[in-house]
Amino acid sequence: MINHVNLIVNNFEVSKKWYELALAPIGYAKLLDLTKEKTGSSKVAAFGESATNIPDFSISSAGSENSTSPAHHIAFNAASHKEVDEFYHAAIKAGGKDNGKPGIRKEYHPDYYAAFVFDPDGYNIEAVCQTPND
User: Fold this and answer.
1) What's the half-sphere exposure (Cβ side, CA atoms, 13 Å) at 85?
2) Which residue, 11, 48, 115, 117, could crosslink 96 as a Cys pair with Cβ 3.0–4.6 Å?
3) Under CATH, which number does the domain 1-65 receive?
4) How many Cα neighbours within 13 Å face the side chain of 16?
5) Which residues have C-beta within 8 Å of that of residue 60, sequence separation ≥ 6?
6) Which residues contact 21 (CB under 8 A, 6 or more apart)?
7) Per-residue pLDDT tens for 93-115?
8) How confident is the model at residue 24 (pLDDT cuts 50, 70, 90)?
9) Which of the four pLDDT bands, split at 50, 70 and 90, describes residue 121?
10) What is the pLDDT of residue 26?
11) Hey, what CATH topology would domain 68-134 get?
């Protein structure tokens, strides 16, 4: 199951405002707004259904000018922290490149346990479990 998708946008502030307005009629709201200092690479605005308060779509400003990674990100749900760990190790063994070892990402929320790996084409692939450690 897909957890969330992220798109890199050319003009972060313009796109953030556009998505806030365009997604409002379908019950989506901006739920998270992170600075470049907080993420370490880019600004992020995350959107999700107002009723659930769980983001599943986000946009990011372009990272470093020297970035060679394609501008897409996808995260898959994992049922447990163990599954996140297993995803990470399997992806690295299969030839992926580390983009964030398994661990809690408190900047997203206290139970956000994730791992990030670049696939063979450079896409940022994530596995995430958003429940307390099992």
Assistant:
1) 7
2) 117
3) 3.10.180.10
4) 15
5) 6, 7, 8, 9, 12, 42, 43, 44, 73
6) none
7) 988 899 999 999 998 889 999 99
8) confident
9) low
10) 73
11) 2,3-Dihydroxybiphenyl 1,2-Dioxygenase; domain 1 (3.10.180)
Decide if 15 contacts 67 (C-beta within 8 A): no
**Of 56, 69, 65, 104, nearest to 84 (Cα)?**
104
Domain boundaries, the chain: 1-65, 68-134
Token pair for 131:
């429940």
Own/partner pairs for 29-32, CB < 8 Å, 24+ apart? 31/55, 32/58, 32/108
Q: Taking the model in full, what pTM does it have? A: 0.69
pLDDT digits (tens, 9 = 90+) for 27-57: 889 999 988 888 878 899 999 988 888 899 9
Asked if 12 contacts 59 with a C-beta cutoff of 8 angstroms, the reply is yes
Question: Within 10 A of 42 (CB to CB), how many other CB atoms are there?
Answer: 19
